[in-house]
Antirestriction protein ArdA (Elizabethkingia anophelis NUHP1), 179 residues
Amino acid sequence: MTKLLNCLDTICIYVGTYKKYNDGSLFGKWLNLSDYSDYDELLEAMKELQQDETDPEFMFQDYECPSFISSLGLISESYISNDIYDIIDQISDCGYDIKVIESFIDCFGVSDLNEIIDRITECYVGEYSDDETFVQSLLEETGDIPQNIPSYISIDWESTARNVMYNYSTSNNHYFRSF
């Protein structure tokens, strides 16, 4: 699992310019965001790479990043947010794995970064292999299933899970209380 602390290691951008592209050149270079301490240092590297242009209009012809980075609008073909390093730090402080954040966004969409962090903290239940395993664990942990239940009583976990899941959402085996 990739921790958000190392999230910058997974973000790479291919930096070219619109002028070169329009002139038929794909000249550029892959830059890894973790090689730079902040946006200003990244910007200097981009300018140095394209130093043959006086005022380069950067084009990010390709980029690799966790899906939530592009979902938050932090990177696109013509834009990289100057707040990207601060935002990654802020998200990293919440302590959740990248897959948890991506699963949350898949379930509930993206609205506001602070809301995402607050909601994950409030709603995240855990990772389970399937709905039945999740519901059985949930009901046992909350005490809704007595520990001394007779062995001749059989619980239809598929049906129980179907009913309980009305109050939960899941993506990639990560479970969240619906809000």
Observations:
- Residues 1-5 have pLDDT under 50 and may be disordered.
